[in-house]
Design goal:
The protein has a single domain, classed as Orthogonal Bundle (Regulator of G-protein Signalling 4, domain 2), CATH 1.10.167. It has 8 helices and no strands. It is an all-alpha fold. It comes from Lottia gigantea. This is RGS domain-containing protein.
């Protein structure tokens, strides 16, 4: 199965393929002027790769860039408050954004990913390869 057809099977197939991510982000930029949800999701994935010394500074950057400014609307207020409280109490580990990341993933899975798969943008990409999605 060509990678671009596997993208239609699950969100994780799409997110695990660099070309798929690039096309998804291009679509989101075109449709909504940005893709902070995708960037946040990958930032959370990257956070898990950091060692204990790097965690506080990386957490601070992710918080300031995505969570604090309310840039990602699909993160619930209680989740934002919980993250803020943990940062204030210096309870900063690689799982601090797990709930927020899960909320973002549900949003992508239910809203932006299906819209992408049904878009002319994706369909034309697939047609350029002479294949058709399921």
């Amino acid at each position: 199965t060509p990678p671009h057809l596997k993208w239609a099977e699950t969100l994780h197939h799409l997110l695990s393929d660099s070309d798929g991510v690039e096309l998804f982000k291009e679509y989101l930029d075109k449709e909504s002027g940005g893709c902070p949800e995708v960037d946040f999701w990958f930032a959370c994935e990257g956070l898990r790769q950091k060692d204990a010394l790097q965690l506080p500074s990386v957490i601070k950057v992710i918080y300031k860039k995505f969570v604090r400014p309310d840039k990602i609307k699909c993160i619930d207020k209680p989740t934002r408050q919980d993250i803020s409280d943990k940062i204030n109490r210096k309870e900063q580990d690689s799982t601090i954004f797990d709930t927020a990341q899960a909320e973002v993933e549900v949003y992508m899975k239910n809203v932006t990913y299906p819209a992408f798969l049904n878009s002319d943008f994706y369909v034309q990409y697939v047609q350029n390869y002479g294949d058709s999605p399921k």
